[in-house]
């Protein structure tokens, strides 16, 4: 018997389709000459478990990755709020909040890092 889960596959595809239309430029703050990450993060579409997992894998920190896997079983829906609260536990200072938000947004629009002044 295959481990293939049609519902999960279709849900992932639907999320990918929804994410394709997200444009971080809509949250550009002319006064700051940067993207307003708070507004963009609030408006950003949901992302899948695997996409969130990829974010934490990119940190190359086994402790964070293992904590994530134990707190969020595979396939569990992860809200932006859950992601943010979990991520906040591992930051050294508040300047890293921008990266937490940008990593979520970056799944849908990878130009966010440059447009938010993070690179």
Structural notes for this entry:
The chain has 119 residues and is mostly helical. It contains seven helices and two strands. It has helices at residues 6-20, 37-43, 49-58, 62-71, 80-88, 97-106, 112-115; strands at 28-29, 34-35. A two-stranded antiparallel ribbon has the order 1-2. The longest helix is centred in the N-terminal third of the chain and has 15 residues, at 6-20. The chain is globular and about 40 Å long. 23% of the residues are buried. The mean pLDDT is 85.
Quickly describe the structure.
The chain is mainly α.
Write the SSE topology.
Layout: H1 6-20, E1 28-29, E2 34-35, H2 37-43, H3 49-58, H4 62-71, H5 80-88, H6 97-106, H7 112-115
Antiparallel strand pairs: 1-2
Keywords:
mainly alpha, about 120 residues, two-stranded antiparallel sheet, 7 helices
**Main sheet summary:** 2 strands, antiparallel
Structural class: mainly alpha
Please report the distance between the alpha carbons of the first and last residues. Answer: 46 Å
Estimate what percentage of residues fall within beta strands. Answer: under 5%
Shape: globular
- Roughly how many Å is the radius of gyration? 15 Å
Given as residue ranges, the uncertain stretches (5+ residues, pLDDT < 50) are: none
Order of strands in the sheet with the most strands? 1-2
Q: Mean of residue pLDDT? A: 85
Number of helices: 7
Helix content: 40-55%
Q: What is the number of strand segments?
A: 2
Q: H/E series, N to C?
A: HEEHHHHHH
């Amino acid at each position: 018997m295959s481990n293939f889960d049609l519902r999960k596959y279709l849900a992932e595809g639907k999320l990918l389709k929804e994410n394709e239309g997200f444009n971080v430029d809509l949250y550009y703050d002319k006064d700051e000459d940067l993207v307003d990450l708070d507004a963009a993060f609030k408006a950003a579409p949901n992302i899948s478990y695997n996409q969130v997992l990829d974010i934490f894998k990119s940190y190359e920190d086994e402790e964070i990755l293992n904590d994530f896997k134990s707190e969020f079983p595979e396939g569990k829906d992860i809200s932006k709020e859950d992601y943010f609260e979990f991520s906040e536990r591992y930051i050294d200072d508040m300047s890293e909040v921008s990266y937490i938000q940008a990593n979520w947004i970056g799944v849908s629009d990878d130009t966010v890092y440059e447009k938010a002044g993070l690179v």
